[in-house]
Design a protein that fits this description.
The structure is a single chain. The chain is an alpha/beta fold and 464 residues long. It contains 13 helices and 18 strands. The strands form three sheets. Strands 1, 2, 3, 4, 5, 16, 17 and 18 form an eight-stranded mixed sheet that branches. It has an eight-stranded parallel sheet with strand order 6-9-10-11-12-13-14-15. Strands 7-8 form a two-stranded antiparallel sheet. The radius of gyration is 21 Å and the shape is globular.
């Protein structure tokens, strides 16, 4: 049975334009757009979007559902995490499958397929974390690219867990240069950081704020510089995840000024939170422990500027929640044992709309960094990230005038605190369609686990 939905009278905002238009949806895809009131379309369902924005569903290209870390697991499952994403206007997540050391990429990928299968409320795709670069795993990269896993994350941090040395990084980059894959880099000098952690603990500096102090800005900048040079040697594009500091951004900007295919992502926590949060009294600062760490507030202006100049192309969440009770508390008396990660998949679209209200970015840039660019960067654009004929009908009706207060009492993430507790924001998701199916209807969840489909990805569309 063919079903038609008509979204009438809203301001359609994409990365390219803003237009008052009616949007016709048929069989899960955008069928047509027309200036408001110029077409007499009939539909099974009509959604009135007068005085609202009609925007593409968000694409969060950096989430970690059920990630094992530090002896525990991220507290959101694929079911709870993707449901929370839908509440926040995100309709596609790209999560990270993990290769364990000594295991194949295939074994890691199959484990993540199994975790997500039949559980997701929205569509999902995978990147591959490579933590054991060797001849076998390098060959497997080619097979994964053919299968639609077209990006590979490497870590210059976490020795003994995810860490790759420069030789391994170079080999993986050389392989990606040949197979069209995109290397994603966690750029921090983990070897040096571990020395500083050991020294801080020996001095009795055990509180959460010391997590930020030992993971120094210069060690993020140094690793970012090194990653860029290795990518140049390999002739490979590079995407640096969760850029948090002005100095690291400067390395990206310098490379981009040379015309190099180097890209950067930042996250809402670096734009809205700071070391002030890590220094909250008692053990409250542990809620804000993530890596790269929160930085002093003065870095925020540089990150906003980078988003305006396109030296940073994407805002993702690095959603990796751990409950304060029983999980973050594992690091009482030793900041190095605090699980690294923040909740945020539900908050990203609203926080970035607040940035529009505050004058940091334009409305079209909001959609670009949250929907279109992540879709382009990771081979999903045309299907995801825009409102255009033929695209999946992943559409959000957004009320730009609604007022809300962010709180753990009202969010839908499976975590016992909000990183943005008490923050007042203007703008709120009202209705969400995923492939034409209404999953949030006037602030009520009408979706289901298993609606979300796995989406194989093409190679990056951002080059050229």
């Amino acid at each position: 049975m063919s079903t038609r939905t008509l979204i009438r009278g809203g301001l359609v905002i994409t990365a390219a334009e803003e237009i008052h238009a009616d949007v016709l949806i048929e069989d899960g895809r955008i069928a047509a757009l027309a200036s408001t009131g110029t077409q007499e379309w009939t539909a099974d369902r009509v959604i009135d979007a007068a005085d609202k924005y009609v925007i593409p569903g968000g694409v969060d290209a950096h989430t970690h559902m059920e990630l094992p870390f530090g002896g525990t697991f991220a507290s959101d499952s694929f079911e709870t995490g993707t449901r929370a994403a839908a509440w926040g206007g995100t309709t596609t997540v790209v999560d990270f499958a993990v290769q364990s050391q000594g295991q194949s990429l295939r074994a890691g990928l199959d484990a993540w397929y199994a975790k997500a299968d039949g559980k997701c409320a929205i569509d999902y795709a995978f990147h591959m974390i490579m933590s054991d670069v060797n001849e076998r795993s390098l060959k497997e990269m080619d097979l994964l690219v053919e299968e639609g896993i077209t990006s590979f994350k490497l870590f210059m941090a976490y020795p003994g867990v995810f860490y790759s040395d420069d030789g391994q990084i170079l080999r993986a980059m050389q392989r990606s240069s040949a197979n069209g894959g995109l290397i994603m880099m966690h750029a921090e000098n983990g070897i040096a950081i571990d020395v500083l952690v050991e020294q801080a603990l020996a001095r009795g500096e055990t509180d959460p704020r010391h997590h930020g102090e030992v993971r120094k800005v210069l060690l993020e900048a140094e690793a970012t510089h090194r990653a860029i040079q290795l990518a140049r040697v390999a002739g490979a594009p590079l995407y640096v995840v969760h850029v948090s500091a002005e100095e690291a951004l400067a390395e990206l900007a310098t490379a981009r000024d040379k015309g190099l295919p180097v890209f950067g992502e930042t996250c809402p926590q670096y734009l809205f939170l700071s070391t002030d949060n890590l220094a909250e009294p008692g053990f409250e600062g542990s809620k804000y422990v993530c890596s790269t760490p929160l930085r002093p507030r003065e870095h925020q202006a540089a990150l906003w500027r980078g988003l305006r100049t396109n030296d940073l192309q994407v805002v993702s969440t690095d959603h990796c929640p751990f409950c304060f009770v029983g999980q973050k508390e594992l690091g009482r008396g030793d900041f190095s044992k605090i699980p690294n990660g923040l909740p945020g998949v539900e908050n990203r679209m609203d926080l970035l709309h607040q940035a529009v209200v505050d004058g940091h970015i334009s409305r079209r840039r909001w959609i670009e960094i949250a929907c279109a660019s992540p879709a382009r960067m990771f081979g999903l654009y045309g299907k995801k990230g825009t409102i255009a004929p033929g695209a999946d009908a992943d559409v959000v009706i957004y009320d730009p005038a609604a007022e809300q207060v962010m709180s753990a009492d009202t969010h839908h993430m499976n975590v016992d605190y909000s990183a943005y507790e008490g923050k007042h924001v203007t703008g709120q998701v009202e209705t969400v369609l995923s492939r034409g199916e209404v999953v949030i209807d006037q602030r009520k969840f009408t979706g289901r686990a298993g609606h979300g489909s796995y989406v194989p990805r093409g190679i990056t569309q951002y080059l050229g």
